[in-house]
Amino acid sequence: MNASNISRRQILKLMGFASASQLLGKPLEFLSENNKMMQRKIKSSGELLPVVGVGTWLTFDVGSNASDRATLKEVLKLMHQHGGKLIDSSPMYGSSEEVVGGLTKEIGLQNEFFYATKVWTTGESDGINQMRASLDKLKRSKMDLMQIHNLIDWRTHIKTLRRWKEEGKIRYIGITHYTDASHDRLKNIIEREKIDFVQFNYSIRKRNAERGLLDAALKHNVAVIVNRPYEGGSLFRLVKGRALPDWVKEYDINSWGQYFLKFLLAHPAVNCVIPGTSKPHHLVDNMKAGYGKLPNQEIREKMYSHIRDLR
């Protein structure tokens, strides 16, 4: 099943920010005030979340390196300036949590972001200890989103997460993975468990999530975070030296990065994409995918065909 098989009923459930006529009859436009980044509702709560965030795998694992930290400060300042909020990290990502926590405090923006991290271990007590450490590193008294990283010992951790949510230590519960092979497991879990967020890989060439996972997220009111939107950079290698097709300019697409991200954001199940970067100019380019028009389904398929046919 691809995106063209999304039912009319599912489309009509799209998070309340656009009318059915916009979704079904013409390209979906971002709704924003004062030229702010588009936001979509977290389905379990109705809270609005900007549609482009940042991932910290590798890019924020810089430890105490002063030069790298100065550059990442600029990345975070620009992210805030351009309307991004979600910062996704994990204990798996080296020093990333500590770097994010330290830098957001240093630039005075520590309460301006939506913090998402993960539990990445086995066993209840080790999971609790790791999550407490993450709160400390990110300098948070409460985590916005705690996710079970790659479904590791998920049955154990989900009990802790539910308890922590009831106690007010976390706001949302999520599960994650990064491979196509995991999609059926993710789908089965969100069909059976009460989950706020699901995070997984999805890109213009790797569309396995359209075979049922995205539909399940819509049906069960689970917010979607997309990781690996650039396929680890391989999409940029594919288009290196190639000009954008002229017809995408109608959809406020002015770079290949925006091309790849807007393809994903045009799917009604997607709440937020989290490309990783440590470069300020790339961060700004990514954020701009959250503004302007989105392609409709016909144009999405045209975008996919253009990439598919590149040699």
TrEMBL record:
Highest rank taxon of the organism: Bacteria
Annotated Pfam families: Aldo_ket_red (PF00248)
Listed Gene3D superfamilies: NADP-dependent oxidoreductase domain
InterPro entries found in the cross-reference section: AKR2_Oxidoreductase, NAD(P)_OxRdtase_dom_sf, NADP_OxRdtase_dom
TM regions (residue ranges): none
Domain NADP-dependent oxidoreductase: residue ranges: 52-300
PANTHER family: D-THREO-ALDOSE 1-DEHYDROGENASE (PTHR43312), NADP-DEPENDENT OXIDOREDUCTASE DOMAIN-CONTAINING PROTEIN (PTHR43312:SF1)
Protein name: Aldo/keto reductase
Organism encoding this protein: Splendidivirga corallicola
Organism classification: Bacteria, Pseudomonadati, Bacteroidota, Cytophagia, Cytophagales
